[in-house]
Design goal:
157 residues, alpha+beta, Chloramphenicol Acetyltransferase, 2 domains, two-stranded antiparallel sheet, 3 helices, 5 strands
Length: 157
């Protein structure tokens, strides 16, 4: 089993006082998606420099860039509110304490194997259920594991 080392966990907020408390109504096209489980994704990047270089130079710039992006794209850090009263409709609410979560991890796994389309032994999969039993995890959908419907059903577990 490939080991994963969590390097950092961030709760990224927009710059202070850049976004007021805001509500956004859901559109007709948003409503059907309420029936589906939320999706999280894993992104793999091959960083050819040292881990120290990444954590001291690239990672702070990435966090700062995400924070600045949230000025315009604050709904990514907001919450979905589902009112209990029937006449009220669901809406998106952004408040000052809302943030976007980012987890950065390192792995000794072969990057080429992780991102290839070739079949490989599923017991060496980087993302297993043991990683964060009590946390949400990003579904890692390889073609050998799931199709679209299977992925949707897997998210319900």
């Amino acid at each position: 089993m490939t080991k994963i080392k969590i390097l950092h966990r961030y709760d990224i907020l927009p710059p202070a006082n850049s976004v007021p408390t805001t509500t956004l109504p859901l559109t007709f096209f948003d409503i059907p998606w309420l029936l589906f489980s939320p999706m999280q994704r894993l992104f793999f990047y091959d960083f050819p420099q040292s881990l120290e270089s990444f954590t001291q130079t690239t990672l702070p710039l990435l966090v700062r860039s995400l924070s600045l992006c949230l000025r315009r794209f604050f709904p990514f850090a907001s919450s979905l509110v589902l009112p209990l009263a029937p006449p009220q409709k669901p809406f998106i609410l952004y408040s000052d304490s809302d943030s976007l979560s980012l987890t950065v991890a390192d792995s000794a796994a072969d990057f080429a194997d992780l991102v290839s389309n070739e079949p490989y032994d599923a017991t060496h999969d980087v993302c297993n259920r043991e990683l964060h039993r009590d946390k949400l995890y990003g579904p890692f959908s390889k073609h050998y594991l799931l199709n679209g419907r299977s992925l949707r059903n897997r998210l319900r577990i």
